[in-house]
Design brief:
Rossmann fold, single chain, four-stranded parallel β-sheet, 2 domains, alpha/beta, six-stranded mixed β-sheet, 10 strands, binds pyridoxal-5'-phosphate, 12 helices, 333 residues
Length: 333
């Protein structure tokens, strides 16, 4: 099969459940809705990075490395899960945290993911927002190497052709699940940031000739820019898979209508969507990614963007740990 020749460790509880969202659907109307629970991947409170780290950590181990270095925003889910994966395999972990979100409070700086980074034994350094984090990681790697460590640098969000294989795996998993329960999934909606999730899904579906359309909701970049980075990585992921040329530009779509003022900054649509899903389904989304993705899906449904006969899957990429860094948004005095 597609992925058998790639080194992989086990870090996720897959297959993650595919469940109906009937009460949410009743509240908003429109097509049949499902949720793919990648918030339940099992590693350190779950989330999409577990799937990517299965391939990235295997590569680090194959290369004899003993330290994972990776960048992220201060409340990065990717850093939290990388720190946990490192602990699980007896590796050290150092995070380069970028102060991408200004005007934060002590919860943002110390609670949620930051608290867990510390608990998993990772170390961290900070760089200003807008820094070249790849260069900062390379410099950190140099310092650690001088002290005798063997560092392995994982790019932001684990998004390179190795990490994206995790979402090729998810694409295959979803197709098998859907056919098992006899559902003809037409579309998959999720939040797209560093692009590895969408790139892996797009490459996976294309390699398997699946007609499932991927609807990315951007959490950071304008549409053009986001689609470019996803397309570029999806093509490189297909190359890595040995399926060069299967990804077409029209396979890549990103809705940029829900970024709001910027990455990690709240929008009313996000707060409303997150609250609605909590109260109709008992499911926690997050303020940075899945809450904005859900706001995007709800808005698209209300606008009639999707056909009423479709079966739409919302990919829950995790992130609810960050809720504890955004307490002020949800706790009304
Ligand atoms: C990282 C992340 C995403 C975005 O995935 P990318 O592969 O970076 O595009 C979405 N949701 C959550 C909760 C994340 O942590």
């Amino acid at each position: 099969m597609l992925l058998q020749s790639f080194p992989r460790v086990s870090l996720s509880h897959a297959p993650t459940p595919l469940e109906p969202l009937d009460r949410l659907r009743a509240a908003i109307g429109g097509p049949r809705l499902w949720i793919k629970r990648d918030d339940c991947t099992g590693l350190a409170q779950g989330g999409n990075k577990a799937r990517k780290l299965e391939f990235l950590v295997a590569d680090a181990l194959a290369k004899g490395c003993d330290l994972l270095i990776t960048p992220g925003a201060v409340q990065s889910n990717h850093v939290r899960m990388t720190a946990a994966a490192a602990a699980r395999f007896g590796l050290k972990c150092h995070a380069v945290l970028e102060r991408r979100v200004q005007e934060t409070d002590t919860d943002y700086e110390e609670n949620g993911n930051v608290l867990l980074d510390e608990l998993f034994g990772s170390t961290r350094s900070y760089v200003p927002g807008g820094s070249d984090v790849a260069a900062a990681c390379a410099a950190a790697a140099e310092d650690f190497r001088a002290k005798g460590a063997k560092p392995y640098v994982i790019p932001g969000g684990g998004s390179n052709p190795i990490g994206a294989l995790g979402y090729v795996a998810c694409a295959m998993e979803l197709m098998a699940q859907a056919s098992q329960i006899g559902v003809n999934v037409t579309r998959l909606v999720h939040g797209t940031g560093s692009s590895g999730t969408q790139a892996g899904l797009v490459a996976g579906f294309a390699a398997m000739r699946s007609p499932i359309a991927v609807y990315g909701v951007s959490v950071r970049q304008p549409r053009q820019k986001q689609e470019e980075i996803v397309f570029d990585l999806a093509c490189r992921t297909a190359d890595h898979l040995g399926h060069s040329g299967v990804v077409k530009r029209e396979h890549v779509f990103a809705d940029d209508g829900h970024v709001g003022p910027g990455y990690g900054l709240p929008t009313q649509g996000m707060v409303d969507a997150l609250t609605l899903v909590a109260r109709t389904e008992g499911i926690l989304l997050d303020p940075v990614y899945s809450g904005k993705a859900m706001a995007g899906m709800i808005a698209a449904i209300r606008k009639g963007t999707f056909g009423d006969g479709e079966d739409i899957v919302f990919l829950h990429t995790g992130g609810s740990t960050a809720l504890f860094g955004y307490k002020h948004l949800f706790l009304k005095a």
